[in-house]
């Protein structure tokens, strides 16, 4: 029912990213070609396990180099941070069990890796996008005419009935409105929106105006379904979700997955368009809501207090 | 009020719960006069249907008297005092599926459509007392129940037929009838029915009403086979008889023209090694259902015949005989019963005496003895065929 596309970052010409890429290559080549010599240079001796570990680290460095120079993406930078932490752990163990020969070189190597780690963390944090534009599309079909469905949707102040994340929509002018919505982690976001296109019975498009907490835009098209089957509703939404990929993952974990929200919204819209209200059960007294799908209220009548809360 | 609740795998309890209230404007509250235990309740109790919650009220076959209606019910559709039978699938009457009379595929009545969409590809309707996969609606094994969208989901009984004559219009009678209806029975047809439980018995009665020449009952419980034999049906006990050979024998080598699977996910098999194979896969969850009856029906059906499935399946099955199905031009038809489609015509048949639904009732118990009823029915004790509960 839904799809999305995310833009990928363009780090191809970033000097720090390219520098880290070439540094990875410069470290990786000798580690793979001459692991024993490299290990000795670090002052950790060339026992077989040290050689194997050095080769493995070299392979990792070459992979990071290929990633950063070939298809740069913040994930490679975070990968380097992970690798650095492994290296520091290994060097820390080497220092603890050191026999004293070449101790100075091991200490120097540890200092160098610490500096590299700091650089990698800096690059990874600064090059990770703070927000990621997201585009969602979804569709449903309802057994009503395009005009009826358009009229229902155009009544913006009724949107919170089926878009449960919306607390309020207030019409402020012929083409403008003010929106307030609940966001993950109990926050509230607000924005002003303007209608950019309005074709009765066919299309409504809108976008947030400057200064919105979350920049967003969207359009909904009403298309007659073939064979008199009613109206196809095609929605596409685009917005900048704060927090980057991490924020998205966290939101998903708490059941705020944007696709699912849109899917739920359309299901409730269909219920309102076809039967006049959102269907409630004892298990799901608030109606369709992915976040409340589990755990649910048991399928038994609600107590008076529960009933008041559910119907409020 | 008192209600029979699911309290865990293989455990039901009659508990005190709040009385139901109007949640949607077209709801009605019904004081239940008769309710029944259905074979598909056993799938819930046995733990094969996911998404049950402790405290869920069971029961989807019920009838009673309307005691309250919501503000959205238009005049005269359902009134306080009406005596009604409630179909188990909740249908909105307005979506494309309902308009096509595919009521159990209603697109609007299941608030947990997301779960059912993930399991089945598209959502299915809400059902009373039948897990949260079908909406989390409270069931009817209780003193009162909320009827959802009551103006499309309650059949008014205006004649003086007894509860026992009309109660089964809520599920098993239309389900059995739909099993036979999907067979497109023609003159001279031999119809074989797997499962001689309540739904199987009604499928047999319906096949005969629709013109079948010969009806064959397949089961392992002799009391159930005896009940079928008493109606004049031929019987096969799969415990001591090879079903396919027996069917070929009874049909001059052709195989039954139409086959009805009235068994579903918890089938047993006469050959213990095959049963063990499916049981083991089900235990490690690599298969959710045991499709013995379905496989046997496909393998036995005559070429070009119809296999009609009304036994409940829930998930994925292995070793589906696709070769037999395709190479021998079989038609496979199935569905949760679209009860609303059949209620009125079946009510007329009951009034005309063409079908006697009361013939399968073996036990009548007060609602407070529901756990005993489940034990009798599930473990086939005391020749139990159908239990009716009186609140």
TrEMBL record, chain A:
Compositional bias ranges of the Basic and acidic residues kind: 302-312
Domain Coenzyme Q-binding protein COQ10 START, residue spans: 143-266
A Pfam family matched in the record: Polyketide_cyc
Domain of life: Bacteria
InterPro entries, per the entry: COQ10_START (IPR005031), ORF3 (IPR047137), START-like_dom_sf (IPR023393)
Region span, Disordered: 278-312
Protein's name in the database: Coenzyme Q-binding protein COQ10 START domain-containing protein
Annotated organism of origin: Streptomyces tuirus
From TrEMBL, chain B:
Entry keywords, A to Z: Metal-binding, Oxidoreductase, Zinc
Record-annotated Alcohol dehydrogenase-like N-terminal domain positions: 26-147
PANTHER family from the UniProt entry: DEHYDROGENASE, ZINC-CONTAINING, PUTATIVE (AFU_ORTHOLOGUE AFUA_2G02810)-RELATED, ZINC-TYPE ALCOHOL DEHYDROGENASE-LIKE
Protein's organism: Streptomyces tuirus
Annotated GO MF terms: oxidoreductase activity; zinc ion binding
Family of this protein: Belongs to the zinc-containing alcohol dehydrogenase family.
Name under which the protein is recorded: Glutathione-dependent formaldehyde dehydrogenase
Names of required cofactors: Zn(2+)
Start and end residues of each Alcohol dehydrogenase-like C-terminal domain: 198-268
Keyword Chaperone: no
Organism lineage string: Bacteria, Bacillati, Actinomycetota, Actinomycetes, Kitasatosporales
């Amino acid at each position: 029912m839904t799809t999305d596309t995310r833009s990928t970052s363009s780090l191809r010409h970033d000097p720090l990213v390219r520098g880290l890429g070439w540094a990875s290559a410069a470290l990786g080549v000798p580690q793979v070609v001459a692991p024993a010599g490299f290990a000795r240079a670090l002052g950790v001796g060339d026992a077989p396990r040290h050689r194997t570990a050095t080769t493995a680290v070299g392979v990792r460095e070459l992979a990071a180099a290929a990633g950063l120079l070939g298809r740069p993406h913040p994930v490679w930078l975070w990968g380097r941070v992970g690798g650095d932490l492994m290296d520091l752990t290994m060097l820390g163990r080497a220092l603890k069990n050191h026999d004293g020969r070449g101790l100075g070189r091991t200490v120097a190597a540890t200092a160098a890796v610490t500096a590299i780690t700091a650089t990698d963390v800096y690059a990874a944090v600064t090059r990770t996008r703070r927000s990621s534009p997201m585009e969602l599309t979804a569709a449903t079909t309802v057994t009503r005419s395009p005009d009826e469905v358009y009229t229902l949707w155009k009544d913006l102040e009724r949107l919170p009935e089926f878009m449960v994340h919306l607390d309020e929509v207030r019409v402020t002018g012929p083409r403008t409105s003010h929106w307030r919505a609940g966001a993950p982690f109990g926050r509230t976001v607000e924005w002003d929106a303007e209608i950019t296109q309005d074709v009765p019975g066919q299309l409504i498009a809108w976008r947030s105006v400057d200064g919105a907490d979350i920049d967003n835009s969207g359009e909904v098209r009403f298309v007659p379904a073939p064979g008199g089957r009613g109206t196809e509703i095609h929605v596409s939404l685009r917005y900048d979700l704060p927090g980057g990929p991490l924020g998205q993952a966290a939101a998903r974990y708490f059941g705020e997955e944007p696709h699912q929200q849109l899917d739920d919204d359309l299901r409730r819209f269909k219920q309102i368009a076809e039967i006049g209200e959102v269907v409630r059960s004892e298990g799901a007294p608030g109606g369709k809501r992915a976040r409340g799908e589990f755990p649910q209220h048991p399928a038994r009548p609600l107590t008076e207090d529960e009933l008041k809360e559910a119907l409020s | 009020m008192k209600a029979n609740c699911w309290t865990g795998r293989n455990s039901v309890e009659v508990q005190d719960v709040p009385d139901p209230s109007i949640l949607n404007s077209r709801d009605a509250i019904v004081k239940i006069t008769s309710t029944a235990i259905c074979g598909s309740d056993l799938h819930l109790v046995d733990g094969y249907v996911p998404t049950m919650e402790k405290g869920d009220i069971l029961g989807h076959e019920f009838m009673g008297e309307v005691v309250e209606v919501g503000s959205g019910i238009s005049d005269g559709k359902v009134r306080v005092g009406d005596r009604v039978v409630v179909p188990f699938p909740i249908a909105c009457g307005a979506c494309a599926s309902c308009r096509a009379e595919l009521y159990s595929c209603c697109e609007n009545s299941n608030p947990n459509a997301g779960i059912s969409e993930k399991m089945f590809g598209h959502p299915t309707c809400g059902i009373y007392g039948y897990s949260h996969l079908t909406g989390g609606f409270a069931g009817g094994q209780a003193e009162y129940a909320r009827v959802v969208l009551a103006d499309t989901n309650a059949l008014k009984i205006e004649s003086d037929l007894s509860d026992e004559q009309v109660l089964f219009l809520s599920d098993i009678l239309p389900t059995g009838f739909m099993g036979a209806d999907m067979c497109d029975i023609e003159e001279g047809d031999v119809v074989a029915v797997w499962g001689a439980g309540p739904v199987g018995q009604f499928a047999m009665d319906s096949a005969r009403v629709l013109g079948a020449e010969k009806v064959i009952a397949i089961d392992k419980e002799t009391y159930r086979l005896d009940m079928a034999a008493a109606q004049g049906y031929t019987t096969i006990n799969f415990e001591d008889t090879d079903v396919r050979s027996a069917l070929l024998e009874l049909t001059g080598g052709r195989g039954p023209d139409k086959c009805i699977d009235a068994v579903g996910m918890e089938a047993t098999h006469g050959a213990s090694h095959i049963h063990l194979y499916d049981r083991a896969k089900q235990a490690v969850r690599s298969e959710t259902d045991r499709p013995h009856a379905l496989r046997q029906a496909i393998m036995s059906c005559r070429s070009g015949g119809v296999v009609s499935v009304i036994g409940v399946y829930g998930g994925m099955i292995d070793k589906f005989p696709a070769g037999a199905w395709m190479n021998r031009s079989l038609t496979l038809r199935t569905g949760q019963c679209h009860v609303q489609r059949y209620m009125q015509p079946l009510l007329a048949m009951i009034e005309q005496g063409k079908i006697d639904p009361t013939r399968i009732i073996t036990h009548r118990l007060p609602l407070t003895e529901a756990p005993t009823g489940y034990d009798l029915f599930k473990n086939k004790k005391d020749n139990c065929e159908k239990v009716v509960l009186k609140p």
